[in-house]
Structures are given as structure tokens and as C-alpha cells.
Amino acid sequence: MVKEKILVIGASGQIGVELTLALRKMYGNANVVASDLREENPLLHGTGPYVSLDVMNKEMLHVQVIRQNITQIYLLAAILSATGEKNPALAWHLNMQSLLNVLDIAKEEKLHKIYWPSSIAVFGPTSPRIDCPQKTIIEPTTVYGISKYAGEFWCNYYHHKYGVDVRSLRYPGLISYKSAPGGGTTDYAVEIFLEALEHKKYKCFLKEDTYLPMMYMPDAIRATIELMEAPVENISIRTSYNISGMSFSPKEINSEIQKHIPELHTTYAPDYRQQIADSWPQSINDQFARQDWGWKPEYDIASMTKDMLQNLEAQESE
After folding, report:
1. Which of 52, 165, 183, 283 is a plausible cystine mate for 247, CB 3.0–4.6 Å?
2. Are 153 and 11 members of one domain?
3. Residue 272 catalytic?
4. Do 13 and 115 meet the contact criterion of CB atoms below 8 Å apart?
């Protein structure tokens, strides 16, 4: 069996930190190289190799891949939905060029596998709102969504034309207690926990009845690894897999937290992110992920809320 050597690009981000730690547990600390433009996240300190890396510098990236004997790349660097709307040209450039750089190097160096996340942001107002299927009308209205949808086709292209084994998930909103969210429209679902514990009040930037697909980070990390570990013959989707955890509204997560922190008072002041949220489906159909590689979420809103609060309280008391 060939020894895998994995490079995680964007390792200090919301997904990157937890994914890096999970991969190090599986493959051994020395075999997972973390990289980012930012400083190393404190949670990664001392757990394995770290390199400062700009994914937009293709030559530098290529040198690292050869020098470190990399066989797999997880590309997590991206500008997310809400941040992307503030600088569309930059979001498009970074989200596209980083992927093309990685795909080109993967083709040239015959890397074993590439992981690149897509998002529910690929869907738009013309996509079905409820139980949105894998194959449907897709007309994204944010630059983030446009870049992710274009990226899905690049992945598909490099797989069919050059045999690059690139795999992808359309993440819903991700909720985590370990690292801060990175400028997405679903960030309220993390902020509300932090504010509930600290101030017992929260001002939400979405309307109370805005339903969006969400997933607890442990499920997202497990889904990512299960997809990447699945036998190649099981992978039928080479754009990006729909994946589902739970769907809820700000009002519902507020009620769930109130079971643990009754004093929490939430007000609603929708801003520009409301328009983005309104363009996305309320729930996702992920039958292909279930069929192809046995995907099944473990957390619902109640178990996720309980776990989030326990872990955040434990962090506070450290």
C-alpha cells in the first residue's frame, strides 16, 4: 500500500482546523502537512508540520507538493458568500484560480486524490426550495455560488479529461465550537451560541423564520473523510455531492438554546445577508451520498445544541 502524504490548504480556517486534526489521527501527524496564509491556528500548534503557503502562487505550491512528496490535497481556501459580495472580483479570482492551480498540479504530478468543497450557495431562487435534488435548475445569485458552480464543472472536466480523482461535497451552513466562522450567510448559527453564553442576548442578521440547511462540524468532517475513503468505483457524482444534516430557522435554534439558557433574548435585524439566504433552498435531498457511500448524519438540532453548549462552556472554564 502506498503511503499517503496529505496537504491541507486553508488549514487555519473553520473547516481546516478540525479536518487537519482528524486526518492526523488517521494518517499520523507527520503525514498531514497543514498550510495557510494566516498564522497557524493555536489548535494545530505542535500537532504536525505547518507551512506558510499562498495557493495563488502556483510555482510555490508546486515546489511544496514535490518537496513534501504530497499524494493528496484538500483545498479549503475560499472567500465565502457574505464576504464575497463585498469584493466580487477578488472572490471569483481567488476561488477559481486556487482550484485551477491545484487541479493542474494534480494532473501533472499524478496525485492520488483531491478534495475541494462546494456549497449550497450553488443553488439560486429558481432551484426547488424544499428537498432540493442533486440535479435541478441551478442559477446562483452570489459570486460565491457562481464560483462554486463553475468549480464543480472544472472538477468534472479534470476527472473525465485527465483522470484526476477529485471529489467534492456541497456543504450546508457549518456549525462549530472550535474555530470561528469565516464570513458566510449561515454564521448566525454559530454567533448565537457565543452571544447566548456571554451576553444572554443576540441580534440576528436574518429573519426569524429563515430556514436554511445546516450541519454540525463533526458530521461535516466525517462526511468529508467518508467520501475521500470511499472506493473510486462508488463515486458517481464528479461535480459535487448534495449533503444534508438538518434544517432550522433562527427562531428554532433560539428556542432550542433557551432550553439550556432560558434568559436568552434574540432580536432580528435582517441585513444584506437576508437576500442571500432567501435565494437558497430550505432543505437538501442527498440520496446520492446515501446510496453511493452510505452517508448518514448523526446530529439533529437538539443533540447539536447540547454538544455545542457543553463544549463552549468547557472552553470558557479552561
Report:
1. 283
2. yes
3. no
4. no
Task: Work out whether the CA dihedral 176, 170, 184, 188 comes out positive or negative.
Answer: negative
Q: pTM of the prediction? A: 0.95
Per-residue model confidence as pLDDT tens digits over 15-33:
999 999 999 999 999 999 9
Which residues, at least 6 apart from 130, have a Cβ–Cβ distance to it below 8 Å? 281, 282, 283
Q: Which of 240, 229, 247, 249 is nearest to 294 (CA)?
A: 229
Q: What CATH number should be reported for the domain holding residue 54?
A: 3.40.50.720
**Number of domain units in the chain:** 2
- Cα(99)–Cα(233) distance, rounded to whole angstroms? 24
Neighbours of 317 (CB within 10 A): 6
Query: Rounded to 5 degrees, what are φ and ψ at 64?
Result: -60, -40
The four Cα atoms 124, 125, 127, 132 give a dihedral, to 10 degrees, of 90
Q: pLDDT tens digits, residue range 34-84?
A: 999 999 999 999 999 999 999 999 999 999 999 999 999 999 999 888 889
List, in sequence order, every residue forming a beta bridge with 203; answer none if it has no partner.
Answer: 267
